[in-house]
Amino acid sequence: MSTVARVDGVTKRFRGVTALDGVSFELQRNGIYGLLGRNGAGKTTLMQVMTGQQVPSAGSVELFGGHPYENAAVLGEVAFIKESQRYPDNFRVRDALTAGRLLFRYWDEALARSLVRDFDIPVKRTVKKLSRGQLSALGVTLGLAARAPLTFFDEPYLGLDAVARQLFYDRLLADYAEFPRTIVLSTHLIDEVADLIEHVLLIERGRLVLDERAEALRGQVMTLTGPSTAVDTLTANTDELHRERLGNLTRATVRGRVEPGDARAAGVELQPVSLQQLVVRITAATVQKEPVP
Asked: ABC transporter domain location, by residue (predicted)?
């Protein structure tokens, strides 16, 4: 594997407000990353810094070995598609597609036309007259057809209905399988993308609180339900994310290893945790440990 992006100690402040606080991680070539976190956690700011749209207050960003700020060679390898994408007032859909063909050096015209057909996007209509769903469909079409080696999707698919979102996920996976690249999905629809994501990045209050492969993460977090004393013993050497007592029973969600045989012998039930619940629990635990000043 080779590194396509390196974020090193990035901090970003806006008028005294810290949007990013010492964020460091790497993106490897050919992988689908989930950039997760609550509204206002810093996800969009992070992507703006990584794509040269914001300059960090401290720290550095490298993409493909170069800095992204006003660097055409580096930015030519990147696509950043966001929900609030803006277009000139007189732009028609066909104009946006033409711009994509001119802007993105890896653009695939056949894929773009196929997506326009699948999403039923009216190419002669002005962009400002598109419905929210059609605007979202245009955004994901541009992002997929760009085939940029590093592609960021900042929730442009939120306006799609469930059927159209599934179409997007299916087309993304199919195209990724044929043309591997590094894709970052920023989303609140965690359960929907759980099977897509290979690596999880979780942002909370501007800090990176989780940087882990999804497969490894699923095996690390579990919920135990059983007699309180037994649960206490089994979870003694784990990182507790959530706990609730129901009489003599305890339900605890922990990060760490608990042997299934030990749990059965103690009369404790082990249950896997969905990615959605995992993010909720880790976020809540982080908030409890770091209260707002």
From this structure: 5-230
